[in-house]
Amino acid sequence: MNIFEAINDMFSYSFITRGILVGGLVALCASVLGVVLVLKKYSMIGDGLSHVGFGAMAVGLAFNMAPLKVAIPVVVAAAFLLLRMSENSRIKGDSAIALVSSSSVAIGVIVNALSNGTNIDLNSYMFGSILAISEDDMIICIGLGLAVLILFMFFYNSIFAVTFDETFARATGVKVSVYKTMLSVLTAITIVIGMRIMGTLLISSLIIFPALSSMRVCKKFRSVMVMSVIISICCFFVGMTASYMLEIPAGASIVVSNLAVFIIFFFAGKIISGS
Predict the structure, then answer these.
(1) What is the DSSP letter of 186?
(2) pTM of the model
(3) If you write DSSP's letter for every residue of 124-175 in order, what string do you get?
């Protein structure tokens, strides 16, 4: 089977089509948010929130509740908590993320161990599975993903100001805390809807890899963001195609595609800079 036949066959399956629609939108959201989060040194918040999502989904499954609907408010609340802990307590940055994420995973594992019949479903959230996306999930995910993109684009100028100089932004009347909170919430939503495909362990790669790769060859904020989007969408589609052709997990395939691009861009950046 050549690559064109594989792509044609992929779209003949409704569950793969749903996965590509949701995953492509998640990749787009993660790439634009990732640039800001990496520049603000908040990139690991994605990893922390995904672990919170795992714990929330485990509880939802244990009580026969829709895991996605349980996880969204919990992860958004965790985003607020992490932001407040980082700003107003002695527990800073990576320490706050480690504290919240490890506790959430522990709770999820204990709840899963004490309940019956949830192991298979829970594994799909930990490692990702396009089979896990139902039509109802797709509608919710697409709605949330579009909301993330619209809000980011609408408040782009303020987000840009907050990203590079909080002090100057605050002096010009920008409500820095509001926009930082909004970024946390948008990241939380992106993480939750992306966990269906990528899984808890791999979703943060969609935030980190495209941003780091684009920064190797681009220097302006807008060009970095555009390149990050291109890389993210291309790597997602290549990863999904490779997953189908080689019969390997989609999440891992997408991450390896991003890793390959990062290595290429890393050396390309060295050549461009002459070092």
Answers:
(1) H
(2) 0.85
(3) HHHH--GGG--HHHHHHHHHHHHHHHHHHHHTHHHHHHHHH-HHHHHHTT--
pLDDT of residue 214: 93
| Predicted local confidence at residue 265, as pLDDT | 93
Q: Tokens standing for 89?
A: 């307590």
pLDDT at 161 over 90: no
Q: Give buried/exposed letters for 153-183 (b at 16+ CB in 10 A, else e).
A: eebeebbebbbeebeebeeeebeeeebbebb
The sign one gets for the Cα dihedral 126, 129, 134, 139 is: positive
Q: Which amino acid, one-letter code, is at 26?
A: V
Report the amino acid identity of residue 216. Answer: R
What pLDDT digit, counting tens, does each position of 21-77 carry?
A: 888 888 888 888 888 888 887 777 777 888 888 888 888 878 888 777 788 888 888
The CA distances from residue 20 to 28, 147, 233, in Å, are 12, 18, 10
Q: Is the pLDDT of residue 251 over 60?
A: yes
CA distances from 160 to 156, 167, 183, 229 (A): 6, 13, 11, 16
Non-local (6+) Cβ contacts of 202 within 8 A are 127, 128, 251, 252, 254, 255
* CA–CA gap between residue 23 and residue 90 (Å, rounded): 37
